[in-house]
Amino acid sequence: MKSQKRTTIYDIAQKLSIAASSVSRALSNSTKVNAATKALVLKTAAEMNYQQNAMASNLRKGNNPTIGVVVPMINQNFFSNIIAGLEEVTYKKGYNLIICQSNELHAREVDCVNALINQHVSCIIISIAAEMGPHQHLQQVLDHRIRLIQFDRVVDELDTFKVINDNEQASYEAVLHLVAQGYKRIALLEGPQDIDIFRQRKEGYLNALRKSGFPILEELMCENAWTKELGAEATAQLLNSPEPPDAIFASTSDFSALGVLEVATDKGIAVPEALGICGYSNEPFTEITSPSITTIDQYSISMGKTIANLYFQDMEEFDFNVETKVVSIKPKLIVRKSTSRI
Amino acid sequence: MKSQKRTTIYDIAQKLSIAASSVSRALSNSTKVNAATKALVLKTAAEMNYQQNAMASNLRKGNNPTIGVVVPMINQNFFSNIIAGLEEVTYKKGYNLIICQSNELHAREVDCVNALINQHVSCIIISIAAEMGPHQHLQQVLDHRIRLIQFDRVVDELDTFKVINDNEQASYEAVLHLVAQGYKRIALLEGPQDIDIFRQRKEGYLNALRKSGFPILEELMCENAWTKELGAEATAQLLNSPEPPDAIFASTSDFSALGVLEVATDKGIAVPEALGICGYSNEPFTEITSPSITTIDQYSISMGKTIANLYFQDMEEFDFNVETKVVSIKPKLIVRKSTSRI
DNA sequence: CTGAAAGCGCTTACAG
DNA sequence: CTGAAAGCGCTTACAG
């Protein structure tokens, strides 16, 4: 038992005195096999506790029904929802999912991608780490004829499928909502501007100001305020300035918005009456703060499903429309109490 | 380019007019190879964009440095933290992680386990689905000489490594804390009693009542109150009863505790003065409700690391102490405002 | 419908 | 240090 090897197709063949190829055919449910033989093989395989060796099978067949996923952080709501969505679709197709996290580090992202290339996965699905670097590793994926799908944080120059949120439009609508609620001095907490999604969100903010005939004021835009702590710091500065804002759009995340809310509460500033707050991501907690926080839902689970479906569609369709390489999902503004003062 | 095959060890060998075995040795950094040859091979491999085929290598070596993980839900805080912890350790060891989710369904759990056996993973790490069934699939894992580590929700009868929380002790301490705060009628929201962790938590509750000389009252124990909605329902009933409780221990989850808090708030019942509330899991939101919710932290990330280390320790040590097959992690009571009335 | 043979891409004793 | 050969466990043309 201890050093016993797993039973192979040959063990079954030997036991039944037939050829290994027949066993293989019986097991793979081929039509070119006698029904009686097939039944016997199946029965014997079960008795001998046979389980196929997927490595051998995949090697021989030259394909590996496995998709590699590289995300910055597995345990972040957005990404774990993406993974859950992916898994739901790939499971039904009999695909496995290999998960890696870059921890927002470029070097680690490169490592993960290389490991996945070695694994001969059929597809790599990736959201780029915050610490950016050259993207030869992604070009490598393509060179090795592995499909590549980028999502959320993508490298524009690379000609791959991209599934993104329409960050600009979502931000635009969020800011217009603030304007409609009568806020006049709307501040922006920005994320690192070398990351595309944060640039887009800023663009949406600027467009909404222009559209509303509001001035664009440098002093109302705070860089790199993308954690709760940094959001709180930026807020403290904003609120202490001679002309403080009457609304803050924490475009980076709900965590940042939470920082804003805590500082406002500490200072006894009424939300939403004296200060409107809007976050980004629709983290579960935004519903239960007091007041609840207006935010933007990214449909992360369904985004995961969309990504996976894109791969299978691309695999299965003959003339997949190359024009539709970028799928943009429109996020939804969720209006809650933190901005409802009318 | 389009139908080009990936370069193999043979392509390199041919180009350099040496044997494939030498290429293999050079690539695997063997000592039995001339330094000059090795350098040449490495250079050529890079030029030819060579990447090893892990399937072939693993098949030949008869081992697959991959760990399969089966969890009920990937996108639940506890589990995604476990996975993050696992990944941190396995990444450093050069192992891959294949992730599956059972969606709390037994049939799907069986599917996942079988797929992982086929993959010849080295180890399967699992937390059992809520919908329980026979566990032959787990016995199969053992029969196929794959290591099995159970965590959190485990099957007791199976002789495998188990990494669990000391649920009983944690519940015991939580209830003693409620007693110390002067609460006299402490209700329990239970989870399904066929799941071990929920039985253990109930046991801790009962022990604490006995220890405190409190009566055990059936009318204060509510079955299957393990979601926010069910928690809210149970709470409404409890608070409408002739002798309502003055504290509720939502032993199932913080979500359940949140349901309690919402009902209490709706009814205008002061928390913690008139009603104490304690949850379980230390979900991020417990910190930011008003009042913040007392709960129990399960150290999920470090639990993930512990699990992974257990595997590697078992692999590497010669005489691993078989006695230590169950690792019990003591969760920590986090006292917050929802129970602090003294 | 069945069998014998080749081969997926690698690694590793075995000689030299 | 290097090469020729065998084999990991499977699948698939090729004959029959």
From TrEMBL, chains A, B:
Domain HTH lacI-type residues, every copy: 7-61
Keyword DNA-binding: yes
PROSITE patterns noted in UniProt: HTH_LACI_2
The keyword Transcription regulation appears for this protein: yes
Pfam families referenced in this protein's UniProt entry, alphabetically: LacI, Peripla_BP_3
Superkingdom in the source lineage: Bacteria
InterPro entries to which the protein is assigned, alphabetical: HTH_LacI, LacI/GalR-like_sensor, Lambda_DNA-bd_dom_sf, Peripla_BP_I
Cited SMART domains: HTH_LACI (SM00354)
Keyword vocabulary terms for this entry: DNA-binding, Transcription, Transcription regulation
One GO MF term attached to the UniProt entry: DNA-binding transcription factor activity
Protein's UniProt name: Transcriptional regulator, LacI family
Source organism of the structure: Pedobacter hartonius
Taxonomic path: Bacteria, Pseudomonadati, Bacteroidota, Sphingobacteriia, Sphingobacteriales
